[in-house]
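DM from R.C. (forwarded with permission)

"hey, sorry to bug you on a friday — could you get me a structure for this? deadline for the figure draft is monday and I only need the backbone to look sensible"
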Amino acid sequence: MSTSPHPRHLLGVKYLGLRVNAFLLKQERNIYTQPLPTRDAKGSAGLQIAVGVTLLPGTFPLGICWKGKGQLSFQAPSPQPPAVAQCPACLSGGMDSKVSGTTSNGETKPVCPGVEKAVEDGALQRDQWSNKMEFVLSVAGEIIGLGNVWRFPYLCYKNGGGAFFIPYLIFLFTCGIPVFLLETALGQYTSQGGITAWRKICPIFEGIGYASQVIVALLNIYYIIVLAWALFYLFSSFTVDLPWGSCRHDWNTERCVEFQRTNGSLNATAENATSPVIEFWERRVLKISEGIQHLGALRWELALCLLLAWVVCYFCIWKGVKSTGKVVYFTATFPYLMLVVLLIRGVTLPGAAQGIQFYLYPNLTRLWDPQVWMDAGTQIFFSFAICLGCLTALGSYNKYHNNCYRDSIALCFLNSGTSFVAGFAIFSILGFMSQEQGVPISEVAESGPGLAFIAYPRAVVMLPFSPLWACCFFFMVVLLGLDSQFVCVESLVTALVDMYPRVFRKKNRREVLILGVSVTSFLVGLVMLTEGGMYVFQLFDYYAASGMCLLFVAIFESFCVAWAYGAGRFYDNIEDMIGYRPWPLIKYCWLFLTPAVCTVRQAPEEKPDEGRDTVVQEGRRALTLEGTSPWGLKII
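My reply, with the result:
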């Protein structure tokens, strides 16, 4: 970690005849204790004991030296490049060539055995982003995901259109940006992952890191299931006639009916009619069972898609930021190209204006509904990937003087802007579908997986060259999910490596750790690809990374930094990194607004999204029963 070349404080203290000089520099060093033989100015032998002490970030390390004649001095080490491993006391000067580690051939070696051992193990070596763009694209890929495409537009429509932006912007400035900056700056300042970063600034709050990593570990298991579904749809799109466009397949039932594009009528009038899109999703992709107590057989096609997703994810991060920084140039930018293509195609369709009107038309009366405010807060926390430790991990690979404040502001607005633009692409298509079917747009608007795997595929069938647009859409979904997935895995791996650097920073051990995390998550995730796996998936989605968990972590993060560590002190740390102090309102958000808003947000009980009530309730009911699945998992 780079340091300021000038002392921040100079203390002179006399006590019991001893003079104490402390030059306090803002830097960090490990703890070393080494007895060093030395000679004073007159040549008399003496003993000097040098101790380098590391205090908490925000406090300052001291070199403590005691000489045999009763002289005690405190001196901070001179600033050195972070790659050079040196004992702080060895930098105080006055040592001969043997002490300083200079060999007969002129080589300079670390004098402390602890440093030599650390260099051999690679424990002091930590990768950094090759350039600023790699960090920006990695964070953009993490925060801009599926929620921007399939959740935000629906929430706008459902919660008053343009009026929804009022609570959304309030949560953005009081919770989103402050916590986003907090986590990014924390990682950059400490150069540590999601657990050890909290240990460094306030050890008593280290549990915050463990809580966030537990959430990430669960998220890694079930989030990638969406990629398996998307890959299945993508491979199914490489055909002349999309398989969900007709009722002429083995999986279709007698109740399956097709929509006619000409007059919006049905070719059958069955009272319980279902569409081929729904039957393809339920009977071909999921083969969904009657309940969670009937897990059934494994869907081997989906299992292969999941395996492919994990293989791609592994090779995206297996070399750390060296590989991740290169992959994101494609995975974080190509979805924008696909989004622009779909946007241009959508707004040129008949009925697009009607769909966009439903998306943005303001209904201010909806602001009196507490659910609108809860949806806005939840969307901010989910879409900004805060309280997961991912931002801390990504920020830890930054250079010390990177302007993390400017990056955080820009990325937050980029995320919100992407969500806003995605609404035009989605609702223009839904408006077209509404006009073609002759039904209100409220009957075709969906959220979550229902939009990606039911509503949008149904709309694609009505377009000319439908397989092309299906491939574009599902490829975009795969890339959006892939970015978020491998960054979450990287976050968990970074936390483990920083906890045990001597174990995992040796040659190839980090790759083995990533492989272990990937294989374990893959095997656990297979239960969600059984015939009853959708019920398990919905339980994970509703409880594992729910808004309640994230809000709980956010409250403690704000309290730790603002009150235990000190908001002003953390502002000093940020100023030391970027050269100026951030907007003062952010500090007051950490102190008061963010904890208050998160606490109030937790008060009402969160309701499941419409369309998944049945699944969640079925899962809850099944968890009260006892049964054994074909996979040997006992459901209690």
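R.C.: lifesaver. Residues 132-326+365-418+483-635 form one domain.
me: no worries. Strands lie at 9-15, 18-24, 32-39, 45-53, 62-67, 71-75, 627-628, 634-635.
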